[in-house]
Write a structure and sequence with these properties.
Layout (H helix, E strand, L loop, with lengths): L4 E5 L5 E9 L2 E8 L2 H15 L18 H13 L7 E4 L2 E7 L2 E6 L3 H6 L2 E4 L2 E6 L2 E4 L16 E3 L12 E3 L6 E6 L2 E9 L3 E7 L2 H17 L16 H10 L4 H10 L1
Helix pairs in contact: 4-6
């Protein structure tokens, strides 16, 4: 068997070949192949990369046939930074780059390093997900961005780069379900709406918390009346239970919603 190659057998009895190498006392699996020649070719390419000065960005000039781009990133980072990750991460000072592919990169703060070094990013319908405890988790939720949120209305990327997920670059505009900010003639008001076969206005409020509580109140009344099966409750930060109760009792909601509730009683 050629260097860096060993054979294995599938459940159906088919023989295949695995490629691996040891670098800085770490054993690294490089992949599985149909032939011994391919597996050895991958080993040679990986070994040459680890003893070269090629950067991740130079992958486009790479003419190898067997080493995947994802593994290329893992090896270059290990060579340059001394840490091996199973996901395609390259460390930079104070942040890191996650290479989705050779043309698509995402930037994250080092605070997120453990998470993304153990969770592989996938893309579906333009959204980014990771598998977490058997569920598909939209990564936007890690940054307080709700699944239905709209960029520019509910959140924005400060520097205009939608691939830069560093915390300082993400600004949440609307934190609560059903609440949006309206600016008119120098005034700021928070609008609360709820969806019942279309959007129904709950009201306009001077504070975001007030609007969020009004949404909760309208949702509860509509659910109790059987008009809604469920609604996404807002959890309000920074107020005590007694303050919440006081605002919930005093906050006004539109007559149109109250009439809908009354019709069902």
């Amino acid at each position: 068997m050629q260097k860096g190659v060993y054979s294995a057998t599938k459940k159906d009895g088919t023989v295949y070949f695995r490629s691996s190498l040891t670098y800085r006392q770490k054993h690294i699996s490089l992949g599985s192949f149909d032939t011994e020649t391919e597996a050895h070719g991958c080993y040679k390419e990986a070994d040459e990369l680890l003893h070269s000065t090629l950067s991740v960005e130079e992958y486009e000039h790479y003419h190898g046939k067997h080493l995947s781009f994802e593994k290329w990133v893992c090896l270059v980072n290990f060579r340059d930074n001394g840490i091996y990750f199973k996901t395609p991460i390259y460390l930079k000072p104070k942040y890191f780059i996650y290479y989705y592919d050779a043309d698509t990169i995402y930037k994250f703060d080092v605070d997120d390093l453990f998470f993304y070094s153990t969770h592989k990013i996938t893309k579906r319908g333009g959204h980014l997900f990771v598998a977490d405890y058997g569920m598909q988790l939209n990564i936007m939720t890690r940054y307080g961005i709700k699944n239905y949120a709209v960029e520019g209305r509910d959140y924005l990327f400060v520097n205009g780069d939608c691939t830069d997920f560093r915390y300082k670059n993400i600004k949440i505009i609307n934190r609560y379900n059903g609440v949006s900010l309206e600016k008119k003639a120098g005034w700021e008001l928070y609008i609360a709406k709820i969806h019942i076969n279309g959007d129904y206005l709950i009201g306009r409020y001077s504070s975001e918390q007030e609007a969020a509580i009004a949404y909760n109140k309208a949702g509860f009344l509509l659910k109790e009346a059987g008009i809604l099966k469920s609604y996404q409750h807002n959890y309000i930060d920074g107020i005590s239970p007694s303050e919440y109760t006081s605002l919930y009792t005093s906050v006004k909601i539109s007559k149109k919603i109250l009439e809908l509730v009354k019709q069902k009683q």
